[in-house]
Specification:
Chain lengths: ~290, ~425
């Protein structure tokens, strides 16, 4: 071990420099920006927490977006973690077919989000879409999907699960490979069933992977933007107006940088709170 | 050999002296736009044109970002008429009074010059103008025994009459519970452009005269009454389909016989040729009984970046593209109403069409321009979101009250 901390600092220095420059610094800049207002001539003036108090007290769309973002995350995160974990457990082998399906399930991740959004918006088009032709051929009623305030958010959730599960599956697979084979052998000698092995060995030892996937996935989903921008534009009736999209509109359509930065700062705070609890919840206090 | 050499030097000379101007343009079909660009290059071999076509949905955002960069590009850009004030107030547009003679200015409709001006200065050159009315599908009317709506200006329908006809023509032809023919489709479903005349017919003023206050205007009694009428089209009478947010799809509804009537723009006289089987007529923009007759107008303009480093070339291009020849070509390709008198004179065979005569009458007598405010793009976007929500069924009053709060916050920054 090193005698002083200083050496350790040198080792993390390269990463630290980039982190400070491209993450921490912009966060600071954006927070300061959230305390200002920009006139149409581009001059900035300091207004304290006016942007925040406007958002919390008067803004008619902020709270709607806030709750929708929470709802979206509360559903999409567990769904993705569950489905990717399940897929990883099923495909953790070296049989030809498991390898084949691993590739198949990973494929949606290899498509850019923009393309995914366009493909699904065509499939789910209320008037010409494949999904509705399918439904009507089965004698069911066609659905409005993204054109309905009650279905649009679910459409986005489905699309995200479809696209992201394969990606997080890879992390779980890597985690599974890390579990020493000897533990399973020992369990087999003791006469453990497959279910018991999964519950008592695999899942507990996946805690670290789970912790990472949970936190990274949460942050990723709070920042969902592309499908909203491409498919729904926050509609219908604001039902998919996620905070990230509202912030984008505020910044680049309405040139209201202060409000946009205030929204992203709030978003950051939410992510921090969630990550904190998720890390606490999945803290692994053992070595193997 | 010697001649070849001279030619080579000449060619190199031309090549080296060519200046490239950047033009940010509306995403019309590329093959159409390139015909104009090519014609310009033929006339001006020393000027290269880098024309960037941006789809309508992204155009205004792209312009905001590009212009805010302040690096002098794009040298020339397309301006939606009502945005002139916004760009001019922020210093993005070059004032053009010194570069156009009075004679040149006389070629354009005065209402278009007005739309391209702000605080008494001329900032954006008219490229087109517009009008709207209700197109109707003759075959559908015949099939269900409904008499054609009147085409004459003096027999203009009231909105109540339009609703009555539309209800009679909204049909579920195979009884599966899904509407197959809609009574009335709206080409630009949530744009203030087509909705303002409805509320204005009831006497609503859509923005304060100074252009900075929407509170009390977009949620006035008349405005809400008109918007409630709009709400009923989709939610009570169900004569208009929800979610047709792309105007091309609205045109397809009408063009393929899935809508008996379409509230739409003048360009459909030409663009409907895409659907050769549809035989259509035009009835003038409706009004409310006892109310005012109001029609929409205004369209695209062309502006020069105030920070351009290639003023001469930018001017040449602007004058070319808004000039008589180019506008004639453009009208024949795209069908947008020209804003120049001389184009109407040059194409009598086109404009003698009674539908064009109706639109020309509207542009001269009943058209009301959209309000002038430097915050137009925010105002329009937020109103559009409100209209979109309302057409899906949101409460008009509550939605407009909310929109007024948001809009006024943005407009305040322009004071």
């Amino acid at each position: 071990m090193f005698r002083s901390d200083r050496v350790a600092w040198f080792f993390i220095l390269p990463a630290l420099v980039f982190l400070l420059l491209f993450k921490i610094w912009p966060i600071g800049v954006s927070f300061i920006e959230s305390l200002t207002t920009t006139s149409f001539r581009g001059t900035k003036s300091f207004v304290g927490f006016e942007n925040y108090s406007y958002l919390f007290k008067y803004d008619p769309v902020f709270w709607n977006s806030f709750w929708i973002t929470l709802l979206y995350s509360a559903i999409v995160n567990p769904l993705i973690v569950l489905s990717s974990l399940l897929m990883a457990l099923l495909l953790n082998g070296s049989h030809f077919f498991t390898k084949f399906f691993r590739t198949v399930f990973f494929l949606p991740t290899a498509i850019s989000y923009a393309v995914v959004a366009v493909i699904w918006s065509i499939v789910l088009d209320p008037y010409y879409g494949l999904a509705n032709s399918f439904l009507t051929s089965l004698g069911l009623k066609p659905q409005p999907f993204f054109a309905s305030p009650n279905q649009a958010l679910w459409g986005l959730i489905m699309l995200n699960v479809w696209r992201s599960s394969g990606y997080w599956m890879m992390y779980f697979l890597a985690g599974l490979q890390n579990i020493p084979e000897s533990l399973y052998e020992a369990a087999e000698i003791d006469g453990a069933s497959t279910l018991q092995k999964t519950l008592k060995i695999t899942l507990p030892l996946l805690t670290r992977t789970m912790s990472f996937v949970l936190v990274a996935n949460t942050a990723f989903n709070f920042l969902s933007f592309a499908p909203v921008y491409i498919i729904t534009k926050g509609g219908p009736m604001g039902s998919t107006n996620l905070l990230m999209y509202e912030s984008y509109k505020s910044a680049f359509v309405n040139a209201d940088m202060g409000r946009a930065s205030a929204i992203t700062s709030i978003l950051l705070a939410i992510i921090l709170v969630f990550s904190f609890f998720e890390l606490k919840l999945t803290k692994a206090n053992f070595e193997y | 050999m010697r001649r070849l050499y001279v030619l080579l030097v000449l060619l190199i000379g031309i090549f080296l002296s060519a200046t490239t101007i950047e033009v940010l343009w509306m995403g019309w079909p590329q093959d159409q736009v390139m015909q104009l660009v090519k014609a310009f290059k033929d006339e001006n071999p020393t000027i290269e044109v880098d024309i960037q076509l941006v789809p309508f949905g992204q155009l205004f955002q792209t312009l905001e970002v590009r212009l805010a960069a302040g690096d002098g590009t794009p040298d020339v850009y397309i301006v939606d008429g009502p945005n002139t004030a916004s760009y001019a107030a922020r210093g993005y547009l070059l004032a053009l009074d010194d570069y156009f003679t009075d004679e040149e200015m006389d070629d354009w409709f005065s209402s278009s010059i007005e739309e391209g001006s702000y605080n008494g200065k001329f900032y954006s050159v008219p490229y087109g103008t517009s009008s709207a009315g209700i197109f109707y599908n003759k075959a559908i009317f015949k099939e269900y025994g409904i008499p054609f709506p009147p085409e004459g200006i003096d027999e203009r329908l009231t909105w109540d009459e339009v609703v009555e006809i539309a209800r009679a023509l909204t049909k579920d032809t195979n009884n599966d519970g899904i509407t197959d023919i809609w009574g009335l489709v709206i080409e630009q479903i949530d744009r203030p452009y087509l909705i303002f005349p409805i509320v204005q017919s009831l006497g609503a003023q859509v923005l304060s005269s100074d252009g900075f206050v929407s509170q009390g205007y977009i949620n006035s009694k008349e405005f809400i009454e008109g918007t409630t009428f709009y709400w009923k089209l989709f939610n009570e009478w169900k004569i208009s389909p929800q979610g047709v947010s792309d105007s091309a799809i609205a045109r397809e509804y009408f063009g393929t016989g899935k809508a008996a009537m379409m509230l739409g723009n003048e360009w459909n006289i030409r663009r409907m040729s895409q659907y050769p089987s549809v035989e259509f007529g035009l009835t003038p923009f409706p009004y409310f009984e006892g109310g005012a007759i109001v029609t929409p107008t205004g369209s695209w303009h062309v502006g020069i970046n105030s920070k351009t480093k290639k003023l001469d070339e930018a001017l040449k291009f602007t004058k070319f593209i808004t000039g008589k020849e180019a506008v004639i070509t453009w009208h024949l390709l795209n069908g947008i109403a020209p804003a120049r008198y001389d184009v109407y004179e040059a194409l009598p065979e086109v404009f003698e069409n009674p539908m064009w005569q109706t639109f020309l009458y509207e542009m001269e007598h009943t058209a009301v321009a959209r309000p002038v405010t430097p915050g137009y793009s925010q105002y329009e976007l937020m109103l559009r979101e409100a209209f979109n929500s309302i057409h899906y069924g949101a409460d008009p009053k509550k939605t407009l009250d909310d929109a007024a709060i948001r809009i006024d916050r943005e407009l305040k920054r322009y004071k």
